[in-house]
């Protein structure tokens, strides 16, 4: 009789625990990144009234007689299914689509979370604003003049220096991709005499920068050459040649002494003129400097340009500071990003230079790999860092620590920290938050089932009590 009482008690206690879990799930239905829990029951130890007997020659086998002593909780599992994604438009709100956790640190202790409602603090650190824990990742480092991410290093705090400066950069290369019209006419009313050369000109200008970020005007004028020989016959060898004149700041009162020479390491010298030679199919063939030296006839066609930087303090002896950059005219026989000579209007639709003024960090964005890219007021972009993700061999073994965080346990395994999209980690979506994976309809059904289980166990205790009362009333 007493067994049924204690079985009922165990049922009441454990259904109450299940109700506690259901209530916690429902209360966190709108908690960012929350993962619901599930209670699994199991039966308890059994009292054996008689054991089993094997068959004999005269009798068959007998099964054991056992009476159960109630039930217990087998496990309370954390269900790590994907929650729905909600767009917020906030650049520091991050969600993970797939497996993985964001890594947070407080001192030297690491925590893990799916809730990516992050922000920046007064020092530019990316943190969880609810508790101040710092988001972990890798900051970019400058190597060879380029920003490089080394994800093999230990993670560190992510710092986004909004308002930080991006130093000015002097122009080191200028790329041309224009067309020079083969139909360019002679100078109006010009009647060449034997030995004269008629010219038609096309010019272009663009801004370049020195090391201070001061703008300079680069002017390149292309003049088509053709004419007659001394005997009065057409000078056919001039048909595909254009003379290029390069000038920096042509309107300045003080000349900048622009010089152009063949690429090869030596400083440019000998004037600011060179000749561009085209093939009969309209593509670039070679360039020729004032000394008659030709480019190698294959690969990239590059000239070196140098000019005086008048805003810089002169060197010892009053020698002006010279700035050099390369003038990339394209590739031999190239059509894309190369100078050409076709019977189409002359154009300069693609000219690129790599210099810029000093700028301030205005904004930043985070891509699907978690790479943080800074956008500066001077139009440049810089890789600032990358958000790290952690994965576990048994994520169900993580312990919940409150504040939407998880803590590693003995059964979760160690954190495998790396960039998103690698080793089973999901991708990061910026401007989005992952919502709770609690399904209210499912929880209400669980609540009904739990309530009925609790009621049934209370009836077991009530009925056992009535039986005991009947026994006590046998002797009156």
Automatic annotation (TrEMBL):
Superkingdom of origin: Bacteria
Give the principal location in a single coarse category. other
Q: Start and end of every Flagellar hook protein FlgE D2 domain?
A: 179-356
Q: Which UniProt keywords apply?
A: Bacterial flagellum, Cell projection, Cilium, Flagellum
Cited InterPro entries: Falgellar_hook_FlgE_sf (IPR037058), Flag_bb_rod_N (IPR001444), Flagellar_basal_body_rod_CS (IPR019776), Flagellar_FlgE/F/G (IPR020013), Flg_bb/hook_C_dom (IPR010930), FlgE/F/G-like (IPR037925), FlgE_D2 (IPR011491), LlgE_F_G-like_D1 (IPR053967)
Compartments it resides in? Bacterial flagellum basal body
Gene Ontology annotations for the cellular component aspect, listed alphabetically: bacterial-type flagellum basal body; bacterial-type flagellum hook; cytosol
Stretches assigned to the Flagellar basal body rod protein N-terminal domain:
8-35
Q: Name one GO biological process term.
A: bacterial-type flagellum-dependent swarming motility
Name all Flagellar hook protein FlgE/F/G-like D1 domain ranges. Answer: 95-148
Q: Which residue intervals define the domain Flagellar basal-body/hook protein C-terminal in the entry?
A: 430-474
Q: Which function does this protein serve?
A: A flexible structure which links the flagellar filament to the drive apparatus in the basal body.
Family classification = Belongs to the flagella basal body rod proteins family.
Protein name as it appears in the record: Flagellar hook protein FlgE
Q: Which organism is it from?
A: Treponema primitia (strain ATCC BAA-887 / DSM 12427 / ZAS-2)
Organism lineage reads as: Bacteria, Pseudomonadati, Spirochaetota, Spirochaetia, Spirochaetales
């Amino acid at each position: 009789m007493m067994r049924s009482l204690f079985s009922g008690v165990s049922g009441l206690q454990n259904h109450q625990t299940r109700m506690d879990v259901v209530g916690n799930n429902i209360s966190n239905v709108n908690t960012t990144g929350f993962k619901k829990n599930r209670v699994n029951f199991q039966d308890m130890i059994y009292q054996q009234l008689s054991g089993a007997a094997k068959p004999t020659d005269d009798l068959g086998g007998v099964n054991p007689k056992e009476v159960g002593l109630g039930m217990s909780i087998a496990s309370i599992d954390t269900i790590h299914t994907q929650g729905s994604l909600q767009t917020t438009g906030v650049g520091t709100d991050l969600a993970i689509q797939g497996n993985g956790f964001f890594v947070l640190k407080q001192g030297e202790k690491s925590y893990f979370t799916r809730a990516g409602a992050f922000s920046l603090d007064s020092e530019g650190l990316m943190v969880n604003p609810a508790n101040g824990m710092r988001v972990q990742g890798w900051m970019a480092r400058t190597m060879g003049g380029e920003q490089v991410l080394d994800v093999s290093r230990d993670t560190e705090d992510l710092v986004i220096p909004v308002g930080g400066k991006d130093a000015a950069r002097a122009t080191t290369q200028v790329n041309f991709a224009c067309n020079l019209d083969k139909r360019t006419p002679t100078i109006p009313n010009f009647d060449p005499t034997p030995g004269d050369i008629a010219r038609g000109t096309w010019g272009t200008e663009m801004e370049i920068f020195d090391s201070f970020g001061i703008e300079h005007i680069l002017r390149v004028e292309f003049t088509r050459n053709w004419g007659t020989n001394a005997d009065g016959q057409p000078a056919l060898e001039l048909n595909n040649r254009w003379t290029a004149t390069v000038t920096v700041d042509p309107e300045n009162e003080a000349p900048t002494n622009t010089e152009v020479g063949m690429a090869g390491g030596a400083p440019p010298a000998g004037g600011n003129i060179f000749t561009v030679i085209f093939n009969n199919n309209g593509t670039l063939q070679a360039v020729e400097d004032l000394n008659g030296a030709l480019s190698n006839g294959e690969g990239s066609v590059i000239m070196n340009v140098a000019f005086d930087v008048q805003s810089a303090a002169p060197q010892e002896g009053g020698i002006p500071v010279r700035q050099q950059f390369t003038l990339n005219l394209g590739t031999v026989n190239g059509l894309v990003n190369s100078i050409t000579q076709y019977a189409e209007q002359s154009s300069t639709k693609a000219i690129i230079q790599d210099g810029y003024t000093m700028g301030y960090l205005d904004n930043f964005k985070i891509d699907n790999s978690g790479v943080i890219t800074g956008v500066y007021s001077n139009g440049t972009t810089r890789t600032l860092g990358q958000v790290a993700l952690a994965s576990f061999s048994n994520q169900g073994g993580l312990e919940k620590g409150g504040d939407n965080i998880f803590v590693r346990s003995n059964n979760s395994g160690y954190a495998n920290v790396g960039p998103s999209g690698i080793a089973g980690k999901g991708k990061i979506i910026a401007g989005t938050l992952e919502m709770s994976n609690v399904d209210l309809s499912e929880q209400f059904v669980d609540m009904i089932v739990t309530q009925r289980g609790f009621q049934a166990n209370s009836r077991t205790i009530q009925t056992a009590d009535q039986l005991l009362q009947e026994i006590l009333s046998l002797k009156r």
